[in-house]
Design brief:
The chain has 24 helices and 17 strands. It is an alpha/beta fold. The strands form 5 sheets. It has a 5-stranded mixed sheet with strand order 10-9-13-11-12. Strands 2-1-3-4 form a 4-stranded mixed sheet, covered by helices on one side. It has a 4-stranded parallel sheet with strand order 7-6-5-8, sandwiched between helices. β3 and β4 form a beta hairpin. α6 crosses α13.
């Protein structure tokens, strides 16, 4: 049997490299693959007989190496039965429909032959041999593929606009500047299946008439860059690139560079700041030449559409949203990782059926969709379908695909503060509404979470949000108020509790916590006093203790060490 180990960033972080070394030292030949999406089960090893998967082993450790090698050599899997994936966890994949992730966790991302064996580069060959650029664009139009970077703009329209723009020099750009907290879809695709990105880009370049292309990827993705560089070199050596040259630009990690004109400015060597539109990039983009920008997931769908037909892609999804969408499930979820599902499934389907629900037996509270540009969707709207229009009606957005799941221990006011802290720091500062407005929003939210909120603060937040949305220059500023507006809309009671009762219902805001000792339950064991880092607890052995509120720093060490449940907060 062949031993294949998942070596995406999640697998490596969980110890896949050490495991690979341990297996190799025992004389085993070990192949690699990327992330299959079950990040919560890493490190993962697949045992193949020919092309047939015989066993998937999960949460494997170095100490398991010898018995895995023995099982692979003998074909007897009884010795690794305890490592095999459960049927419950297998359903994580079986309930998905994979197109953008079709090769992730299956092929060797560092082998062009492995990609070709999975029908790789057949689509670009078909395009060059038998399709005109107009026919390619029409096939994408039939598919209904919308930009997967967040805006959901029709892909064919952007391609067509760039093709029809006058100019003898045109450029294609891939936006791989994935900046949303909790999002890692693009990184996983590049690490696990870089050739699918290249093939999609080559098809797009052919369609719009571009001879040069760029992949703008954040420098925080070193493994993705290494594998993409190798894929470009291998495809060039194999003569697949044709007359198109693709280069990599490592960005400095500015969130605003997810906006296409700010990305172009950075690509040109300038500070990443958005341009006024119009003109749009299709008219004047990179170095003022007609340009087209799509994100990684968008390009990853293109080859499949060309091979299988636009109608096959359009048959999945809803009237407003065609095909599939990749999501990164993170937060308080049992099964964290990558999920690709047909549009039209509900949030409940993804979070509870595929994701397994909330971990540690806690209660679902909300899901943040679309990162800092999105909004918090409450439990009452869990049956909302995953559709651009329906999600937009909740006040959230599809975004690039981040799904941050929260349980009842999450303070929604503090969650809004977290995202505004992020957007205020990431603002490029070009327009006043975003530069100053997000800062004022953040300051107000900080006051509320510190117990210094006052009547009228919620109304002030709403007024600021409206002003920022109306006046900001680009999408970063225009969508920055979404986390605030949705938390006010669905969790107004938590804002009121912070302001009027000086209480945090979730008990997450440290400044609003007040630890006290119940004299009836206290046994006088002295554990709390001995573990208090500032000596705020006094009392004698076998007698109730007390906490000096003027000294207490609200760290919670006393509650964590009390065995009798005598500490209240």
């Amino acid at each position: 049997m062949r031993i294949v180990i998942g070596e995406g960033s999640c697998g490596i972080a969980a110890g896949a490299k050490k495991l690979h070394s341990a297996l190799s030292q025992l004389g085993a030949e070990v192949g690699i693959t990327g992330c299959i999406g079950m990040c919560y089960l890493e490190p993962i090893i697949d045992l193949y007989e020919g092309q047939d998967l015989k066993a998937r082993l999960v949460r494997v450790q170095d100490k398991d190496a010898q018995r895995i090698v023995d099982a692979a050599k003998s074909g007897d899997l009884s010795g690794v039965e305890d490592l095999r994936i459960s049927s419950d966890d297998e359903s994580f994949l079986s309930k998905q429909t994979r197109i953008a992730l079709r090769h992730c966790g299956i092929i060797d991302p560092e082998s062009i032959d492995s990609y070709r064996a999975a029908d790789g580069y057949k689509a670009i060959a078909k395009v060059r041999e038998s399709m005109t650029p107009e026919e390619v664009i029409e096939e994408i139009k039939i598919s209904g593929l919308a930009g997967r970077g967040g805006a959901g703009f029709p892909t064919w329209f952007k391609w067509n606009a760039a093709r029809n723009s006058k100019g003898d020099e045109k450029y294609l750009i891939c936006n791989a500047d994935e900046g949303d907290p909790g999002a890692f879809m693009d990184r996983a695709v590049i690490e696990s299946d870089p050739h699918s990105l290249l093939e999609g880009m080559l098809i797009a370049a052919y369609a719009i008439g571009a001879k040069r292309a760029f992949v703008y990827v954040r420098a925080e993705y070193p493994l993705a860059i290494i594998r993409l560089e190798k894929a470009i070199a291998d495809a060039t050596a194999a003569g697949i690139m044709g007359d198109c040259e693709i280069r990599i630009k490592a960005g400095a990690g500015a969130f605003v560079c997810g906006e296409e004109t700010a990305l172009i400015e950075s690509l040109e060597g300038n500070r990443g700041m958005p341009r006024l539109k119009p003109p749009f990039p299709a008219e004047k983009g990179y170095i003022q030449k007609p340009s087209n920008i799509n994100n990684v997931e968008t390009f990853a769908n293109v080859a499949w559409i060309i091979l299988n037909g636009g109608k096959a892609f359009a048959a999945m999804g809803t009237e407003n949203s065609k095909g599939t969408k990749v999501f990164a499930l993170t937060g308080k979820i049992r099964r964290g990782g990558l999920v690709e599902i047909p549009m039209g499934l509900t949030l409940r389907d993804v979070i509870f059926d595929i994701g397994g629900g909330i971990r540690d037996g806690k209660k679902f509270k909300a899901v943040q969709m679309g990162g800092p540009s999105g909004g918090c969707i409450p439990e009452s709207l869990l049956d909302t379908r995953i559709d651009y229009k329906e999600l937009g009606a909740t006040g959230a957005i599809m975004g690039s695909g981040g799904m941050v799941v929260m349980d009842d221990s999450t303070c929604m006011v503090n969650m809004a503060r977290f995202f505004l802290d992020f957007t205020a720091k990431e603002s490029c500062g070009k327009c006043v509404h975003c530069r100053i407005g997000t800062k004022r929003l953040h300051e107000t939210l900080v006051r509320i979470t510190e117990g210094k909120g006052k009547e009228g603060d919620v109304e002030l937040l709403e007024e600021l949000c409206r002003g920022i949305k109306d006046g900001a220059l680009c999408g970063l500023g225009q969508t920055a108020p979404n986390p605030v507006l949705t938390t006010i809309r669905y969790f107004r009671d938590e804002y009121d509790a912070h302001i009027r009762q000086q209480q945090c219902p979730a008990k997450e805001c440290v400044a609003l916590r007040r630890f006290t000792i119940d004299p009836v339950k206290c046994r006088g064991c002295t554990m709390c006093a001995r573990n208090c880092p500032v000596g705020a607890i006094t009392g004698t052995v076998k007698n109730p203790h007390v906490i000096d509120q003027t000294k207490c720093i609200k760290c919670g060490a006393c509650k964590a060490t009390c065995k009798f449940g005598a500490i209240n907060d």
